[in-house]
Amino acid sequence: MPKKSSGGGLTATQQAAKFLGVSVLAGAVLAGIALPAVGALGLAAKGSVESFDELPANLKTPPLSQRTTILDAEGDQIATVYSRDRTVVDLKNISPYLQKAIVAIEDSRFYQHGAVDLKGVLRALNKNAQSGGVSEGASTLTQQYVKNVFVEEAGDDPTKVAQATQQTIGRKIRELKYAIQVEEELGKKKILENYLNITFFGQQAYGVEAASQRYFSKHAKELTLAESALLAGIVQSPSRYDPVNDEAEAVKRRNVVLERMAEVGDVSRAEAEEAKRAPLGLKVTQPKNGCITAVQGASFFCKYVERVFLSDPVFGKTKEERAKVWNRGGLTIRTTLEPQAQASVQDSLKDHVYKSDKVAAAATLVEPGTGKILAMGQSKPYGYNKNETEYNFSVNAAMGGSNFGFPTGSTFKPFVAAAALEQGKPVTQSYPAPYQMQYPEKVQTCSGKPWVNDGRPEKYKLENESETEVGPYALKEAMELSVNTYFVEMLGDIGMCPVVKMTDALGVVQGNGDKVPEVPSSMTLGSTGLSPLTMASAYAAFASRGMYCTPVAIESITQTVGGTKKSLEVPKSTCSRAMSEKTADSINTLLSGVTDSGTGKQAGLSGRANAGKTGTTDERKNAWFVGYTPNLSGAVWVGSASQKVKMTGISIGGTYHAQVYGGDTPGPIWRDAMTGALEGKEAPSFNLISIPSGEKDPKEDGRGRGNGNDDGNNGDAGFIGGLVGGGSTGDTSGGINLPDNLFQGQGNGGNGGGRRG
Q1: CA distance 544 to 627
Q2: Other CB atoms within 10 A of residue 317 CB
Q3: Of the candidates 665, 739, 748, which has an alpha carbon nearest to the alpha carbon of residue 709?
Q4: Which of 271, 378, 424, 482 has the greatest count of CB atoms below 10 A from its CB?
Q5: Who contacts 1 (Cβ-Cβ below 8 Å, separation ≥6)?
Q6: C-alpha to C-alpha distances, 641 to 72, 378, 701, nearest whole angstrom
Q7: Tens-place pLDDT, residues 427-486
Q8: What's the pTM?
Q9: Torsion angles phi and psi, residue 442, rounded to 5
């Protein structure tokens, strides 16, 4: 509440202020305008007292928006983001020269007057009357501070900003009342400190510390007399006196400030003249705002962190509440990103795929048992120029990724095997697995209504990669060779509901967030689009012996508000059992064979236990390798975001490929990324099981193993999950026509989503 005088009335300052509140003359001058016509005076006077008295007693000062710093897991800076580039500092950390300069040029009687400078009002009134216009205003530093508070509260809302700065008597009266409160509550030094921290100095810099760093690359406490005068001069018109773009105008304004400082006795005439002769001495630090400036190629991870903050209810019940906290800034966000792993991913991508290539690559590494995202990168950098993109190929659409994700091909098959094992099928399960076959007549679904094959051979026929791949096969060999017909037979045997339950437990959803559709091609051959983060997290459950953990990117957040630091609650990974340890151990054994002697040999790691699966989709538009060790899981995708590039007769990273396989392109990227990420780390072993070998010698029946490079999902001509029709070339005729500019993962799965890696 306002302080009362000893007699119970208002203080002298408040009496003067109330008089000004009802005085149209004062209102006109405070608004910084020439005297209005007499008729207008009468209208303006009516209701002035009422308006003044009805204003809230206390100015609500919002926390100053500041930069947010995003750190990696070791505490090193990844990037800074802000809506206002500002670092709040105490008055003791601001050069005395700058304190004197801003007072001298903006309000030389600051320490002598109260909230309003009556002499200044009369002086401004006289000059404005003589000029017939607005040649001088009368706002004190305190009033300017209050106006800046209104602007800060308006944020980035242009309507609110306009209301906070409009030249009206009403706003000036409101400004004056709050200025009185501020004078009585804060005192001169605190007002000056607040003003210097809130005001705009141009070049995206708010407050003196940011301005000092921007123009001189030094702290505000280190500013010289000449440098201080330059910054003080900018405040009146940051665009006009911008020293970066108009040095001559900035020098003139600086010298005006120095002259004024000499006039009021803040510096000697000799000091002022010496400073006038000094060069500007700029040492400009370019604005570095946003994830585009992130180190180690972590821009996409940085944007993912931002998306997490803006979407997770833990940071606010509504989207607006979360955005307000984010824009206010002052956050220090420690993330899960591991520098060694991130550097390894980026180095591997750079070595194997050029940003100018027709295709792109994305890789994500996740820690089993915790869900921590340790690395995330891609071959095309974050940006808006040629061979750059703002889309994060590693994540789902809601987090800035492609609209549907990318078809995974045979990397989906381990989910089918895990579901079958959970249903009690033996790890030695055998099926006829002919080279070519029709989809089963019926396959059970979770609804109880079976999926029915309508008998069209051109649509529901599938085949293996090579004509030599003829069964019968047991599970181990079928997984190593990625035999399509085997896994379709397995699906027909167990039905689709066990696979649905398994993928649900592993957090497997399409890139658009929808569940994987209950159709055979999606449930076996990976015709549905998924993201690398989804795949890496799902495979991490195999590594952690059946425990699936939701991915997390944030370790902790500290928020600074008004000089006080507090910790914010952050999202936690939720871990749950997706399968038994026995099933996970069985899958680990099966997939170890893939990297040991199967389609993933080129991806295999030396000196540590590892397992994985290759995948290559129809017409070789997508190639995958998803693999893991007991302590790290990773997924690598290679393909075209537009899904228009067929990876045949193509050069990638300077290497020519007649045909791209999951084993020979994403496989080596995964190998090198994992090798660097795990260097110096422990090398635990899997809990492998013994699987009796039921294989026949290929010489006995003429059945060969193919070239070991394939990941055969070749059949299913045109069948793509019932979502998009088409022929064997994977077109969408007769189905849904997707715009060319949409990343899509459905329409390219024409032959069941895959061939073989």
Answers
A1: 13
A2: 9
A3: 665
A4: 482
A5: 57
A6: 28, 12, 43
A7: 999 999 999 998 998 999 999 899 998 876 556 788 888 888 998 999 999 999 999 999
A8: 0.77
A9: -140, 145
